Amino acid sequence: MSTLRVAIVGAGPKGMSALERLVHYASHSTSRAMYDVDLYEPHRSPGAGPIYDPRQPEYLRMNIATDVVDAWWAAGRVPDDARHPSFATWRRLQLRSITRELGDTALDAFPPRAVVGRYLEHAFAMIVESAPESMRVRVMPHRVLDIEPVGAGWTVRADGLERSGEPYDEVLIATGHASGWSDALTQVWRSSVSPMTTVFPVQEQLSRERVAPGARVAVRGFALTCIDAALALTEGRGGSFHALDHPWRLRYERGPADILCLLPFTRSGRPMLSKPLPGLLASVGGIGEFTARGRERIRTLDAGLDLRVDLLPVLVDSAVASIQAVTSAGNDHVILDDVRADADHWLRGALDGSPTRVDGNDVVGQIAKSLEVGCGAAAPDMLWALGHAWRSLYPAIVDRVGGNGLTAVAWPGFVRLARELERIAFGPPAANAAKLLALVDAGIVDLTHLHGGRLVSVDGESELRSAATSSRVDVVVDAVLPPAGIFGLSTAPLATLLDVGAVRTRRGRRGLDVLGDGSCVGADGIATPGLAAIGRPTEDSTIGNDTLSRRMHPLAELWAERVVTRAGRERSSAATSRADLARQG
Prior knowledge:
Blueprint: E1 3-9, H1 13-28, E2 34-40, H2 87-93, H3 95-102, H4 113-129, E3 135-140, E4 144-150, E5 153-158, E6 170-173, H5 185-188, E7 196-197, H6 202-205, E8 216-220, H7 224-232, E9 240-243, E10 250-253, E11 261-265, H8 287-299, H9 307-327, H10 333-352, H11 361-374, H12 382-401, H13 411-425, H14 430-441, E12 454-458, E13 461-465, E14 470-473, E15 475-478, H15 494-499, E16 519-521, E17 527-533, H16 555-584
Parallel strand pairs: 1-2, 1-6, 2-3, 6-17, 7-15, 8-11, 8-15
Antiparallel strand pairs: 4-5, 9-10, 12-13, 13-14, 16-17
Helix pairs in contact: 1-4, 1-16, 8-9, 8-12, 9-10, 9-12, 10-13, 11-14, 12-13
């Protein structure tokens, strides 16, 4: 083998992180191995991808703090300079241009996703430019249709390409959100009565042609994507939000092309709570010590841990400690004992699949309270404390619970627990939570059917029905994204790889079974040579696959190291063979 051929399928942030590591290791290798690297990415902005499209509207915001956004691997970080800038450094260097185009929102703690997309696009170009002379990098602007084994390698078939050339020695699957799944609204509710659409990209899916001004819009889901849809159909139509004489509430003024109303409906009816402002805990003494202590307790839990006995007490203790630190409750055991009891009760309900129910005005009340607490205008409560505990301990939980960290019997309980804690820990930024409440106050977002609403067709019209009443709807929007993993997906290339036994899922898990370096485990329980996956397709084998974070999962790092080691080993073997032939000659 003279050149190692590598395909990276998906060049969003995850694929870019793998390329960055591959460039790093190849640049520092002494083997003089050669590489051909093809990145398959149909989106116009490699590095950013569709979620962080630099051209999307500025009202679509980040929901994670921007200090975690860094295109370069944290463990081997070079000095934070203009050649390898973190997002914070890049934003400072680009201050004038980004504020000229996007205004002061570009400087927010939770800025527009378009700003982060520009950074990722810039970083991708820098990574490609820094590739060593031994590596040729090409961006293939095509959607991958299938991946098939051929001999000792892999053939990648892509839309618009007749053939991909020679087989690849290594293929890395780094795809993001799937385009369709078995529980999509188009699959579970088939009706020709009302037009149906999704959310992204909002400029197309929620355009005035698809969702007419004055329409009554039913939206499945009430999480972050629903909020994005609500903003696209209001602020994106010329409406405006105005500050009130209040630290965190807004007033909404309708625009000329607004919809009439937006009616979200979900199975649970429970809201996502506002994420606290990043600087809220900056001056709180001792809270970092509590977090470090909780992480160490989780990392030292024995194999076969019992969630109820082992994990829940750590979460409760961390929640109580954070309340005590923030409020300086001291020896007021009544208050702390109440928090402990409430937190324990809440967690046990979430673990058992019977979480505390939220009805009617309580939904608005919980969002408003979380916003008030998150902005520092009210004392922290139990839900804030549990959300803070989950966010703070999450890296240790990822390390301890991922892979084989839980038995198949314990896994469903963890999934239920994580789903409820993510709702209170990883919700919208305060700015978007305030906008959502303003839309409720204006009568545009109507929560009448939030819990248990269902779509029906009646006399040629679509209706949204719940226990209390029914409402006619003109357009239906599916704001539930395909889940992480591959559960419910039936399309290639993953379906093909499953069929041929090149990949597998573990019993009860949603994602691909992978080793620590991303290598896919086949149906025979053995790593499949030359095939790896990172990110969303691996969920449950690796948990918490945040698109941007590079601090928790070393899969891209270990994958790149393995690939470069393989290239060096095979080059050395080829050189030895040539030397032997020369001696024989």
